[in-house]
Q: What sequence folds into this?
């Protein structure tokens, strides 16, 4: 029986002459040849005999027969044309469990980054730091709201969290003092611009096993065009020694160097290479999210150039991997054998019900990018969730409730995209940001190509 609708269950693409097949629902990835690629185009529409006849002037009958049998065998094994059994039935059940907090210990910053979504730390409000009482109440809140979950993640955020280092230290000590009695374990991260990352601070972070996200945009001229001090001078020369010293202390593990690329450095591969050449192993360079009127904004006219740039980065990534000098690029991290758990694949970061942001006054928001938008205030660490309906709205904003996502081959990799970007650009949680979607699809194809090439290399050894 012909089943053309089955074609929607797979995604085929070619990268650098390599033909790749993805089974969308299982995540199984195959490298295929030209004959298999051609047979797949007709497999769901014609019988084997009809396909042999269809390609009689292009491929030998034995070649088509072999390709058809291989595809049929994959299907029999449950590796190809698998269905999504949850598509029409998924409904998050049970009580939400808060697993992570983003503690805004400082709504203030010692830099004035030109693209800052947080309004230089003010979040459309005023400059302030979090008092110890609010931080402790936040820990009390998450200990209760995490229910039976053992591991709790806390990210110290800003602004610049090192402007309030005392509260960071107090919070870590307080959380760990209570963790054992509650059967919990805290995992801490601190996101910093590295200006105040002194030797004493570095030692404290390492001794307390706090992971770090270190902000640096890449080449000096790129970083210093956007990441500037209040007087306008660039920050590269100030922060690079601190970042290098931190990474050396961590033995090159337990961190990410995180940059942002804009229209001004659409050749961002050069910035990733610059960071790798500095000896940094764990790198994340993210596209800026900004109103199209901003001079540094990424717009759809740049998409072809940005896609070529990801291809160029992929080639360099594989070259360095083959040479024994690899680096880890965040967006190329795809595990096709044991990917994210099912809820993560369907809902993403969990903003609004699993992951919450806490302001210096203790207000709760769905995530750090919603802070300051008062219509998204959810409650307080002192009073708990006051708007459960808002939490339910975020919980229901999964891939099956987003029309574009239901039909997208990459839905299980991006999990529906960023809620904050959807609201900012589409005005609706259920309408993903189009440019971000296009970039994510390209990054996923690059990551799948990398996975295929690595497996091929391993198989040849």
A:
């Amino acid at each position: 029986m012909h089943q053309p609708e089955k074609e929607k269950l797979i995604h085929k693409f070619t990268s650098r002459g390599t033909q790749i097949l993805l089974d969308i629902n299982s995540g199984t990835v195959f490298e295929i040849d030209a004959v298999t690629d051609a047979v797949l185009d007709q497999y769901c529409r014609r019988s084997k005999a009809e396909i042999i006849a269809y390609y009689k002037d292009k491929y030998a009958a034995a070649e088509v027969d072999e390709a058809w049998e291989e595809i049929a065998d994959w299907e029999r094994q449950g590796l190809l044309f698998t269905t999504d059994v949850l598509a029409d039935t998924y409904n998050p059940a049970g009580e939400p469990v808060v697993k992570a907090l983003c503690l805004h210990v400082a709504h203030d910053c010692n830099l004035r980054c030109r693209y800052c979504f947080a309004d230089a730390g003010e979040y459309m409000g005023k400059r302030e730091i979090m008092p110890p009482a609010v931080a402790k109440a936040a820990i009390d809140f998450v200990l209760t709201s995490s229910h039976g979950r053992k591991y709790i993640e806390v990210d110290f955020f800003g602004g610049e969290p090192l402007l309030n280092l005392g509260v960071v230290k107090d919070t870590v000590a307080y959380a760990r003092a209570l963790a054992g009695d509650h059967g919990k374990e805290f995992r801490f991260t601190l996101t910093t611009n590295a200006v105040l990352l002194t030797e004493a601070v570095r030692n404290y972070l390492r001794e307390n096993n706090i992971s770090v996200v270190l902000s640096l945009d890449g080449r000096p001229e790129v970083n210093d065009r956007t990441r500037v001090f209040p007087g306008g001078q660039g920050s590269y020369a100030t922060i690079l020694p601190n970042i290098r010293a931190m990474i050396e202390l961590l033995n090159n593990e337990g961190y990410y160097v995180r940059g942002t690329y804009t229209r001004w450095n659409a050749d961002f591969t050069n910035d990733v290479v610059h960071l790798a050449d500095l000896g940094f192993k764990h790198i994340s360079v993210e596209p800026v999210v900004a109103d199209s009127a901003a001079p540094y904004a990424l717009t759809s006219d740049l998409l072809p150039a940005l896609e070529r740039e990801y291809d160029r980065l992929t080639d360099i990534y594989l070259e360095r991997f083959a040479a024994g000098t690899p680096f880890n690029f965040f967006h190329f991290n795809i595990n096709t054998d044991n990917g994210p758990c099912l809820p993560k694949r369907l809902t993403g970061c969990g903003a609004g019900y699993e992951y919450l942001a806490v302001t210096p006054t203790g207000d709760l928001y769905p995530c750090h990018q919603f802070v300051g938008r008062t219509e998204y205030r959810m409650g307080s660490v002192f009073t708990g969730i006051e708007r459960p309906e808002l939490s339910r709205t975020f919980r229901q904003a999964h891939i099956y409730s987003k029309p574009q996502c239901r039909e997208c081959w990459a839905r299980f990799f991006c999990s529906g995209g960023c809620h904050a970007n959807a609201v900012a650009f589409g005005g609706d949680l259920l309408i993903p940001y189009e440019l971000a979607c296009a970039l994510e699809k390209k990054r996923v194809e690059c990551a799948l190509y990398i996975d295929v090439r690595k497996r091929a290399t391993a198989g040849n050894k």
